[in-house]
Amino acid sequence: MDERGLALLRDALAEEPDRGMALAVVLRALEAVGASERQEWIELVPPGQDREHAEARVRDLDSLAGGPTGVPDDWSDWMQQRLAATSPDLAMLDLLARAGRTKRIRRMAAERRQAMGGP
């Protein structure tokens, strides 16, 4: 989506009465915009639990961009799923296949690892 489309979407979200729908759109937009633009999207979400969720997503996106550190227990389910689905790092996939938080994450990482030519 280009800048004009994003601007129109931001304007529409300001009027969206369904806050759950607005949050879902903001979470997707956070992935599409640059780091310098993320705060203006977060501000479309009212203070409280939904905004905290959006802020946590930004932390996850920043961590993904820099390469996650720590252990899977420190990472959100969303980040673990994203890594299991997209990481080209075989060691990361092995780690998630063993220590991912959910069966789905562990299975996804193991299947991706195997598809990439690993045991």
Can you tell me about this structure?
By secondary structure, this protein is mainly α. 69% of the residues lie in helices and 0% in strands. Helix 2 (19-32) packs parallel to helix 4 (49-66), helix 5 (77-86) runs parallel beside helix 7 (103-115) and helix 6 runs antiparallel to helix 7 (103-115). The longest helix has 18 residues, at 49-66.
Please tag this protein with its features.
119 residues; mainly alpha; elongated
Summarize the structure.
69% of the residues lie in helices and 0% in strands. The protein is mainly α and 119 residues long.
Q: State the shape.
A: elongated
**What is the structural class?**
mainly alpha
Q: How many distinct helices?
A: 7
- Work out the strand percent: under 5%
Give the SSE layout.
Elements: H1 3-14, H2 19-32, H3 38-42, H4 49-66, H5 77-86, H6 90-99, H7 103-115
Helix pairs in contact: 2-4, 5-7, 6-7
